[in-house]
Write a structure and sequence with these properties.
By secondary structure, the protein is mainly α. The chain is built from nine helices and five strands, in the order ββαααβββαααααα. Helix 4 packs antiparallel against helix 5 and helix 7 packs across helix 8.
């Protein structure tokens, strides 16, 4: 996956930057040097000092390494970084934690294409989670993906000297792919919840404001033509129909969100895109109510003129806006990354009959500070 770089002058690559590849090579050199040393030599070696120097430069830009897995047979590793950044807010700058999954493993995955594909799927899910989730769900998914990639690299290392049994490889790959599907289900559910909140924000905030502005503009046009009479029954019925249609559309969406229908939206859209999609829903309902208001007064619908009362217009306009729930206007769901086999890019909907809350998620814990040796299977660098 793409690597972030940090300013530095510690590498031999001809650039004043320290990438994750540089950090992994420095760690591997330290590890190899420790194989030939013992005791005080390990703590005072030049390789150790160089690794920590490269680590400081890398973390200054990419963020603190929360946890990492360092391979011992080749210069390969996977690490999770966390960085706190300030972003402009409405009233004051707000701080946001950013997570990033880094991986260098081409040296060890050359002959295991199936496991390499799983690592690639982990990278894609990490990119989606880093940009599509917030708070605890994002931290959970990123830490969860790090564990899966660590398991994959560990399996490859265990079978470095000899190829694994095909049946063992198949069982292991199937187990890790099932774990990735659990992670993606967790990501999908929380991404959908986040998108629904943003949709409601656009619908109840911007959407209602748009209806009010349209009402004022319409009143201005009626005043220009000299037909604006706030005490006239036709004007009153017109505005009541417009308002009832917008309310009907809002109630329809709220009922669908509560589980009394289907509500699917692509949660991988940006914040403003989802906000705008929600903003036009009350407008569509309002227009539907106005159209019905005019239709029932024509010969197309044979209705007794005595029945065309204020309550009648409100009810039919509300139903017109509410009927938008049966019109598929929401964008389809986000596309899947992990599949059972050859099929990919399936709509991100939970399996039929499954409990969407059944998939457990691991707890996110801060990892303790690692010992002064890179040789551990799960060597970690202390978190921020």
């Amino acid at each position: 996956m793409p690597e972030e770089t940090a300013p530095g002058t510690l590498t031999d690559n001809g650039h004043d930057h320290v990438s994750f590849s540089d950090l992994v090579r420095a760690h591997f050199e330290w590890d190899q040097a420790n194989e030939r040393r013992s005791g005080e030599e390990r703590r005072s070696g030049a390789e150790r000092r160089r690794f920590h120097e490269v680590l400081d430069h890398f973390e200054s830009e990419a963020g603190k390494i929360v946890d990492a897995y360092w391979c011992r047979t080749e210069a390969s590793a996977v690490a999770l970084t966390r960085r706190e950044r300030e972003r402009p807010g409405r009233f004051r700058p707000r701080r946001k934690l950013e997570y990033r999954l880094h991986r260098v493993s081409d040296w060890v995955t050359g002959g295991t294409h199936e496991l390499a594909d799983l690592l690639h799927d982990c990278d894609i899910l990490a990119i989606k989670a880093a940009n599509g989730l917030d708070g605890v769900p994002r931290a959970v998914v990123m830490q969860w993906l790090l564990l899966v990639e660590s398991h994959l690299l560990g399996f490859i290392e265990r079978h470095r000297d000899r190829d694994p049994d095909p049946r063992e490889l198949k069982r292991f790959a199937a187990s890790e792919r099932a774990e990735l599907r659990r992670i993606e289900d967790y990501y999908w559910r929380h991404g959908e919840k986040r998108a629904r909140l943003q949709y409601m924000e656009g619908m109840l905030g911007i959407g209602v404001l748009i209806l009010f502005i349209n009402g004022m503009i319409t009143a201005g046009f009626l005043a220009v033509f000299g037909v604006l009479d706030v005490y006239d029954a036709d004007v009153r019925n017109f505005y009541a129909s417009a308002a009832a249609g917008g309310v009907g559309a809002i109630v329809s969406v709220l009922m669908r969100m509560s589980g009394r229908g289907t509500f699917v939206i692509d949660h991988e859209l940006g914040y403003w895109q989802i906000l705008l999609v929600g903003a036009y829903r009350p407008l569509v309902g309002s227009v539907s109510g106005i159209v019905v208001y005019f239709i029932v007064q024509t010969s197309i619908v044979p209705i007794d003129s005595d029945a065309l009362t204020f309550p009648f217009f409100v009810v039919v306009a509300f139903l017109a806006g509410f009927s938008e729930r049966w019109t598929r206007m929401i964008l389809s769901g986000a596309m899947r990354t992990v599949s059972d086999g050859e099929k990919r890019d399936e709509p991100a909907t939970p399996p039929a009959g499954s409990d969407p809350q059944a998939a457990p998620a691991p707890e996110v814990e801060e990892t303790p500070e690692a010992e002064e040796t890179p040789a551990g299977r799960q060597a970690s660098v202390s978190p921020a």
